[in-house]
Amino acid sequence: WSLEDGLNRVLGLGLGCVRLTEADYLCSHLTEGPHRVVAHFYARQLTLEELHTIEISAVHSRDHGMEVMGMVRVPLYTQKDRMGGLPNFLANSFVGTAKFQLLFALKILNMVPEEKLAEAVAATQRPKKAAIDHAGGAA
Q1: Distance, CA of 108 to chain centre
Q2: What Gene Ontology terms describe where this protein resides (cellular component) (predicted)?
Q3: How far are the Cα atoms of 26, 77, 78, 85, 119 from residue 41, in angstroms, in the given order?
Q4: Which of 34, 51, 72, 130 has the most other CB atoms within 10 Å of its CB?
Protein backbone atom coordinates (compact mmCIF):
# COMPACT_ATOMS: atom_id res chain seq x y z
CA TRP A 1 0.00 0.00 0.00
CA SER A 2 1.21 3.50 -0.77
CA LEU A 3 0.88 6.57 1.43
CA GLU A 4 -1.75 7.85 -1.02
CA ASP A 5 -3.77 4.60 -0.75
CA GLY A 6 -4.01 5.06 3.03
CA LEU A 7 -4.79 8.74 2.70
CA ASN A 8 -7.55 8.07 0.17
CA ARG A 9 -9.09 5.42 2.44
CA VAL A 10 -9.27 7.98 5.28
CA LEU A 11 -10.51 10.75 2.96
CA GLY A 12 -13.14 8.37 1.63
CA LEU A 13 -14.60 8.05 5.13
CA GLY A 14 -14.74 11.78 5.69
CA LEU A 15 -15.20 13.28 2.24
CA GLY A 16 -15.75 10.42 -0.15
CA CYS A 17 -15.41 12.45 -3.31
CA VAL A 18 -11.74 13.36 -3.75
CA ARG A 19 -8.72 11.21 -4.51
CA LEU A 20 -5.17 12.41 -4.05
CA THR A 21 -2.22 11.10 -6.01
CA GLU A 22 1.53 11.25 -5.65
CA ALA A 23 1.47 14.32 -7.92
CA ASP A 24 -0.52 16.18 -5.20
CA TYR A 25 2.22 15.65 -2.59
CA LEU A 26 3.99 18.82 -1.41
CA CYS A 27 6.07 17.99 1.66
CA SER A 28 6.43 16.16 4.97
CA HIS A 29 7.48 17.50 8.35
CA LEU A 30 8.60 15.76 11.51
CA THR A 31 7.63 17.32 14.83
CA GLU A 32 10.23 16.92 17.56
CA GLY A 33 9.53 16.07 21.17
CA PRO A 34 8.21 13.11 23.12
CA HIS A 35 5.38 12.52 20.64
CA ARG A 36 7.07 12.61 17.26
CA VAL A 37 4.62 12.94 14.39
CA VAL A 38 5.23 12.98 10.66
CA ALA A 39 2.76 15.28 8.91
CA HIS A 40 2.37 14.79 5.17
CA PHE A 41 0.96 17.69 3.17
CA TYR A 42 -0.93 17.40 -0.10
CA ALA A 43 -2.56 20.09 -2.23
CA ARG A 44 -4.88 19.73 -5.19
CA GLN A 45 -6.61 22.28 -7.37
CA LEU A 46 -10.38 21.82 -7.42
CA THR A 47 -13.18 23.10 -9.55
CA LEU A 48 -15.84 25.14 -7.78
CA GLU A 49 -18.23 22.20 -8.18
CA GLU A 50 -15.72 19.79 -6.56
CA LEU A 51 -15.21 22.23 -3.68
CA HIS A 52 -18.95 22.50 -3.03
CA THR A 53 -19.30 18.69 -3.14
CA ILE A 54 -16.46 18.27 -0.62
CA GLU A 55 -17.92 20.89 1.72
CA ILE A 56 -21.32 19.19 1.70
CA SER A 57 -19.75 15.72 2.12
CA ALA A 58 -17.73 16.89 5.12
CA VAL A 59 -20.81 18.18 6.93
CA HIS A 60 -22.72 14.95 6.26
CA SER A 61 -19.84 12.63 7.18
CA ARG A 62 -20.60 10.12 9.92
CA ASP A 63 -17.45 11.40 11.67
CA HIS A 64 -18.45 15.08 11.47
CA GLY A 65 -17.68 16.81 14.74
CA MET A 66 -15.27 14.08 15.81
CA GLU A 67 -12.62 13.47 13.15
CA VAL A 68 -14.05 15.64 10.39
CA MET A 69 -14.48 19.24 11.47
CA GLY A 70 -15.49 20.66 8.11
CA MET A 71 -13.58 22.96 5.82
CA VAL A 72 -11.93 26.31 6.30
CA ARG A 73 -11.49 28.79 3.47
CA VAL A 74 -8.30 30.78 3.91
CA PRO A 75 -8.67 34.48 3.00
CA LEU A 76 -6.00 35.22 0.39
CA TYR A 77 -6.23 39.00 0.73
CA THR A 78 -5.22 41.67 3.22
CA GLN A 79 -7.60 44.47 4.10
CA LYS A 80 -6.57 48.13 4.14
CA ASP A 81 -5.97 48.02 7.91
CA ARG A 82 -3.16 45.49 7.18
CA MET A 83 -4.62 43.03 9.73
CA GLY A 84 -7.95 41.88 8.28
CA GLY A 85 -8.00 38.89 5.97
CA LEU A 86 -4.90 36.68 5.78
CA PRO A 87 -2.93 38.35 8.64
CA ASN A 88 -5.88 37.91 11.00
CA PHE A 89 -6.31 34.28 9.89
CA LEU A 90 -2.60 33.59 10.51
CA ALA A 91 -2.90 35.02 14.03
CA ASN A 92 -5.02 31.98 15.00
CA SER A 93 -3.58 28.94 16.76
CA PHE A 94 -2.60 26.08 14.45
CA VAL A 95 -1.96 22.45 15.36
CA GLY A 96 1.50 20.98 14.77
CA THR A 97 3.08 22.09 11.53
CA ALA A 98 -0.19 23.23 9.90
CA LYS A 99 0.71 26.94 9.81
CA PHE A 100 4.12 26.28 8.29
CA GLN A 101 2.60 23.93 5.73
CA LEU A 102 -0.07 26.48 4.79
CA LEU A 103 2.54 29.22 4.30
CA PHE A 104 4.74 26.83 2.32
CA ALA A 105 1.84 25.90 0.01
CA LEU A 106 0.76 29.51 -0.50
CA LYS A 107 4.31 30.39 -1.50
CA ILE A 108 5.25 27.49 -3.78
CA LEU A 109 1.84 27.37 -5.46
CA ASN A 110 2.06 31.13 -6.07
CA MET A 111 -1.34 31.70 -4.49
CA VAL A 112 -0.20 34.87 -2.71
CA PRO A 113 2.64 37.10 -3.95
CA GLU A 114 5.72 36.48 -1.80
CA GLU A 115 5.95 40.09 -0.57
CA LYS A 116 2.26 40.08 0.44
CA LEU A 117 2.76 36.78 2.26
CA ALA A 118 5.76 38.23 4.14
CA GLU A 119 3.70 41.31 5.08
CA ALA A 120 0.86 39.14 6.38
CA VAL A 121 3.26 37.09 8.53
CA ALA A 122 4.97 40.25 9.83
CA ALA A 123 1.61 41.77 10.76
CA THR A 124 0.88 38.80 13.03
CA GLN A 125 4.19 39.31 14.84
CA ARG A 126 3.57 42.97 15.78
CA PRO A 127 2.46 43.60 19.33
CA LYS A 128 -1.32 43.82 19.51
CA LYS A 129 -1.22 47.34 20.99
CA ALA A 130 0.70 48.61 17.96
CA ALA A 131 -1.87 47.05 15.63
CA ILE A 132 -4.72 48.68 17.64
CA ASP A 133 -2.95 52.06 17.60
CA HIS A 134 -2.43 51.75 13.84
CA ALA A 135 -6.10 50.92 13.29
CA GLY A 136 -7.14 53.88 15.46
CA GLY A 137 -4.90 56.20 13.44
CA ALA A 138 -6.40 54.93 10.19
CA ALA A 139 -9.93 55.74 11.39
Answers
A1: 14
A2: nucleus
A3: 6, 23, 25, 23, 24
A4: 51
